[in-house]
Amino acid sequence: MPQKPVESGAGAAGISRLISFIDAVVAIAMTLLILPLVNDATGIGDQSPGDLLAGNAFDLFAFVLSFVVIFRFWLAHHRMYLGVAGYTPGLVLANLVWLLCLVFLPFPTQLLDADTQHDAVTNGLYIATMVAASTSAMVQQLIINRTPAIRAPGFSRKPILGPAAAASLMLAAWAVAVLAPDVGLWSLLLLFLQAPVQRLARRLTPRVAGAA
User: Fold this and answer.
1) What's the sign of the alpha-carbon dihedral 81, 83, 85, 86?
2) Model pTM?
């Protein structure tokens, strides 16, 4: 049974405030990623900039990776909410979980370094955070699709296949990283299979793409 949305007037103003809040928190999460590297730079001492960069090569890689990951999550979220004019308590809760994952991501990012790049726990925690964020995004899409009252006129339901494929592939990447530690974060290359997986799913189950 669809959840009761907020009143339409409050919804129009409320969803705008909710999205603004989400955007601000995401921006802070992305900023937090660089702070450990800034601290390293302030303690450069007699090191040359080249030595500092070489000594922090993996940390720089982890920073760029997580920056791109958070941006991709935000971009998908932005597209998901185009045409959404209200919200439900369940949608707010799903957003809270999603935000929690993104704000938490700088922590496992900081654990990544050259010494732990093949550590199952470190890589598992990092990818598990992405799995949780993807799952909460999928829940958001389901709620939006199944609650006509929070959708603006002319809004067309978006396929659930995209979020579902992303969450499934991230779960597979997590399993590979945990069970085969030598693979490490390379398991995230599985995400490049998202488009082929979606096409295959559409052929096998044509109705899934438009499922509410």
Assistant:
1) negative
2) 0.85
